[in-house]
Structure formats: structure tokens, C-alpha cells
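Q: How would the C-alpha cells look for this protein?
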Amino acid sequence: MDTKSLVYKKAFEAYMRKGIPIAYSLEQQALQTKQQSKRPQQRTTTHYIWRTQSDGNVRESHAANDGKIFAWDAPPPTGHPGEDYGCRCTAEPYTPKINEQIEITLSGISDAGSPWSKRDFINHYFNGKGRSIRVRETGHLHSIAAEYRKIVIDDPARLPTQIAQRARETKTGPFSDHFKNVYDMTHIVFSIGDTTIGGKYMGSSSEKNGVLSFTGKIDFYLEDAFKDPLDIFDLIPGDNLELTRSQPYRIYDKWQGQLKGQIYTEAFLSSFK
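A: Here is the predicted structure in C-alpha cell form.
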């Protein structure tokens, strides 16, 4: 249907529904077109937010559009704001953002005492009888967690990106996933060295007007087995040392984190057209 036919169609519908004279309808539409032509700023963006006058005279179909985001090149069934007869709605310019705001906070990483020295690790290695120990017992959990945050959490391309991707895939509802990797902590605590840190995040996301919001929690764990603190066998090789050492011991711990974030992305706009 061409523009002229659409104009006459709207005028005829106004006459049939409300008894408004066709000539008057055509005059009002021409006036609205003229007014819109004087407001080129409405088209300075590719998208807009539909805004109504929020009173009792707003059409039900237009009230349903209020606050939603639409593209100028893909109008909703109602047409753009101001196009329908007598429509007083406006289009608020909107610039889609591709941005992620993800916050991960950690808790439960306090240490049980002063940090173990090299001598403490060696003593446990020979005299601990293979007893598993928690990292917080060695007094090094806080420093390891801080290093892990710097490597994995504060890097947007790592854990935050993985979480954001799962939230995008889910859009609305619960989501979860596992993560696991080995990290070199030698420069933090030599006796711990390479260690495995992983966990699971669980959250729930919701999508509204081009914004994806999510909250949840993360359970972290650290676990590994250590056979030779300080590379003793490399420094003092010999059968006698081999005979007197204890069994390899396990070092482990757990801590938690809270998750919340928002993703603004143009990809979600199609849901509201």
C-alpha cells in the first residue's frame, strides 16, 4: 500500500470508528506530517524509546509500547509515535550500547592464622603423615584468592565473558556452568606452586527493553596434591631422603562469591520490535 492510500485508509478508519469527517482527518494528518518534518532530531538515531503522555487518553495499543525500544526502519504494528491519528506519543532517541557490567565479589577467604613459612611446609611434608590441609590453614588463602581474582575475575575476557555468554544464551530464567583450570602460584607461595582452581556459578537472568540483568552466586574450590615442597629432591637428591619423606599430602579449600551484572546489547532489540 502506497503512502497516499495509507493516508486515506487512516482517514476512513477514523470516520468509521469515531465519526470524524474524512476531510478533517486528512487535514490533521497533513498537519502532523508537517510538524514531524520540523523535528529531524527524532531520526538522529537508529532506534528510539516509545513514550506516551501517561494519561487516560492513551490508546491501549500505544500504552503497551510505552518504554519499549523500536528501530526506525522496523516500526511496530501501531506505526511510529505520532503517526496514528491524534497520537501524542513521542520518540525518545536511543543509542544502543554494546557493554557489559559484571560484578563478582568474593567471600569466605579469611585465613586461620599467620602464613606458613618454607620451614612450616617442609615440616608438614616430612611429619604430617599425609594429612590433608586447607589452604586457609597455611595462611595463604587470601593471597592466592587475590592472585586468582587478578588473573581470572578482573580480566573481562575470562570468567566474566563466560558468565555473560551463558546469560545471553538463557536470556530469561536460570543458568549455570562449571569452570576449571590450573594456575601457577609459585610466585605467591612456592610450596603450593601449580594448583587447580575451579567452581560453579548459578544465576537467574531476565530481559527487559534491551537490557539483560542477572544475579547469582559462585562456589569456588582449590585442590591439588603436592609431593615435593621447595623441590627438595632436586636440591638434595638421595635414597635416604626418599625413605624418610611422608606420603604426598592434599591441599584444598572452598570459598564463595556473589554475582550480578547487566548487559546492554543491540542484539536484544529484535525482541521488542
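The mean pLDDT is 80.

DSSP finds nine helices and nine strands in the chain.

Upvote if useful.
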